[in-house]
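Students often ask why inverse folding is considered easier than folding. One informal answer: many sequences map to the same fold, so there is more than one right answer. In these notes we will look at a single instance of the problem. The structure comes first.
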């Protein structure tokens, strides 16, 4: 299932161009709202159809309540993270934004401590390698904290909660399409409220941003975040966050292929360090003694999956 998370990171990396272009035409809440309205419109019907397979009701009452709650919780976190990122990127550099946002590779295992998860030393070491790799890839200057940087730090913290929420609620249902669709509907609703209160959306501006919104809504939203939910169902969240941080590598590769940007030696080294961290995190854990069983269970994905 780690391949699904790699594909999600690839899509998100390529989405950087779309998000950047979108800010030229519409404000943050409008962009976030319209992209996730599109995502929800695609996935909710698919989730309902999938749930009626065999002529049965979509979900049992208890499972429907679980999915509805999960969609709301995950959607609020996704809305707050997306809005923080979209507003913050306007007042900070793209390199610093990418580095600071991806600090969820540290935030997820830290949050895991409060939920009874105790990542082993290897996961902490991989998280450190991930931060070093992201720094080499993304940061081209000092890390003075300005308004945009502060919003990106907030974004990283909220994304950590979103990843942990997906881990929690994806385990209680098989209808992950509906869970993802309800998450997007909640995100669209939260950002839509902000759009109506603080912005002046114009149809002409939205039309001008149609291509960025389409890519962000269909690929980054409907496809990318669904891959995240599917992949995280069987993946330890600390390892999942490392895999998804490959977004920075794919962003650089997309710039090379689409925009003909060259990767510097520093960026190549950073990509290699980050990729090494992801591979190391997924190597099978050795059972040295019975006393290590608890640690092994904490990282069950390393032995081929989690039930």
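Output (designed amino acids):
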């Amino acid at each position: 299932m780690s391949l699904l998370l790699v594909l999600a990171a690839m899509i998100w990396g390529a989405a950087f161009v779309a998000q950047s272009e979108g800010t030229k035409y519409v404000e943050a809440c409008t962009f976030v709202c319209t992209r996730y309205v599109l995502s929800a419109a695609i996935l909710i019907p698919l989730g309902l159809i999938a749930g009626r397979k065999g002529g049965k009701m979509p979900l049992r009452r208890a499972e429907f309540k679980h999915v509805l709650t999960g969609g709301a919780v995950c959607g609020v976190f996704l809305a707050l993270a997306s809005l923080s990122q979209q507003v913050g990127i306007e007042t900070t550099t793209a390199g610093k934004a990418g580095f600071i946002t991806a600090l969820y590779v540290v935030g997820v295992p830290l949050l895991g401590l409060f939920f009874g998860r105790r990542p082993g030393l290897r996961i902490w070491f991989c998280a450190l390698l991930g931060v070093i790799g992201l720094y080499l890839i993304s940061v081209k200057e000092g890390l003075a904290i300005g308004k945009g940087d502060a919003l990106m730090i907030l974004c990283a913290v909220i994304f950590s909660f979103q990843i942990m929420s997906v881990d929690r609620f994806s385990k209680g249902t098989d209808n992950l399409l509906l869970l993802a669709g309800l998450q997007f509907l909640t995100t669209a609703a939260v950002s839509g409220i902000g759009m109506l209160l603080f912005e002046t959306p114009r149809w002409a501006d939205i039309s001008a941003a149609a291509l960025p919104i389409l890519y962000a809504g269909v690929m980054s939203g409907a496809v990318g975040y669904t891959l995240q939910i599917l992949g995280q169902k069987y993946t330890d969240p600390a390892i999942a966050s490392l895999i998804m941080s490959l977004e920075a590598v794919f962003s650089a590769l997309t710039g090379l292929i689409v925009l003909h940007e060259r990767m510097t030696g520093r960026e190549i080294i950073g990509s290699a360090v980050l990729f090494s961290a992801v591979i190391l995190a997924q190597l099978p854990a050795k059972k040295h003694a019975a006393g290590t069983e608890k640690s092994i269970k904490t990282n069950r994905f390393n032995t081929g999956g989690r039930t």
